[in-house]
Amino acid sequence: MDIASLTEHFAIPGVLSFNQTASGLIYADVTTPHATATVYLQGAHLAAWQPTGEQPVLFVSRKSDFEPGKPIRGGVPIAFPWFANRHDGKTGPSHGFARIQNWTLAFAALAGNDLHLTFTLAPTEISRELGYDNFRLAYQLTIGRTLTMQLAVANDAAAPLLFEEALHTYYSVVDVHEVTVTGLEPTPFIDKTDNMREKPAAHAPLTFTGPTDRVYQNTEATCVLHDAAGRRRITVAKTNSDTTVVFNPWKAMADLGPDEWHEMLCVETVNAAANTVTLAPGKTHSMQAHISVEKILS
Ligand SMILES: O=P(O)(O)OC[C@H]1O[C@H](O)[C@H](O)[C@@H](O)[C@@H]1O
């Protein structure tokens, strides 16, 4: 859909409008009574969410590409149908194809103080080339003072569908050196910065002193990011997600400036590795993350 038809079908005066970058990416601009947000149709990529009276909750790199076919560095990339590298011996883009495909906006409505948006993705030429031609995705965002992101996967095939998935959320923090994350204390993890070694549970809140890329499996725990320098707490609760990934590269990347990595932390709502989903024919799987923000007053 182009901007004119999106506007005709879905615009809500003062709440939801549609725009386009010079590079041709269409995005939805959201202003609810309690928050603002930006969502790109490419990847159904939530690139900003800011409750009224708060600093932006999501980090987006100032060096990010905003180009057709290139992932955005920050916000909430959706990884599907694999997480990070494809590991069935075939080649494919990092984190799968969903974050670089154009999704369809299917529904938009303001209910109370929250804007509800639903984006869908069906097989595309690219997904078929990668061997995925029998799935349906629906991504529901509930945008307000809190944020709910729900990714539903349906299997249209006659055979089981195996997939990994992630709501690869980049949080904006003032200084990652002063952040602690609670919720993962009892959980062992795979350390991707140390040759995928399995490490025992730390039994202590997570702090950050170097490159961090950890896959915590078999955990449904709510995580809390305590951003001491930002004087706020971000709570990430989740449903039907058994993996949490925590990531900070601790260095610049092609699309992340040298002065930027200390302003971000990914705490990702995932099903991957041992928690890869096997979805029976005709079934649907739905994973949800619910984000809330509070000021630390003292
Ligand atoms: O550079 P990307 O493809 O966006 O991936 C960024 C990161 O995503 C996840 O957090 C993975 O665990 C990391 O290993 C990966 O580096």
TrEMBL record:
* EC primary class: isomerase
Q: Which residues form the active site?
A: 168, 268
Offer one example of a GO biological process linked to this entry: carbohydrate metabolic process
Record's GO cellular component terms? cytoplasm
Against SUPFAM superfamilies, the record matches this protein to: Galactose mutarotase-like
Protein name per the record: Putative glucose-6-phosphate 1-epimerase
Q: What is the lineage of its organism?
A: Bacteria, Pseudomonadati, Acidobacteriota, Terriglobia, Terriglobales
| EC code(s) of this entry | 5.1.3.15
Top-rank taxon of the source lineage equals Bacteria
Query: What reaction does this enzyme carry out catalytically?
Result: alpha-D-glucose 6-phosphate = beta-D-glucose 6-phosphate
Q: Which residues form a coiled coil?
A: none
CDD domains registered for this protein in UniProt: D-hex-6-P-epi_like (cd09020)
List, alphabetically, the InterPro entries matched: Aldose_1/G6P_1-epimerase (IPR008183), G6P_1-epimerase (IPR025532), Gal_mutarotase_sf_dom (IPR011013), GH-type_carb-bd (IPR014718)
Q: What family name appears in the similarity comment? A: Belongs to the glucose-6-phosphate 1-epimerase family.
GO molecular function list: carbohydrate binding; glucose-6-phosphate 1-epimerase activity
What keywords sit in the KW lines?
A: Isomerase
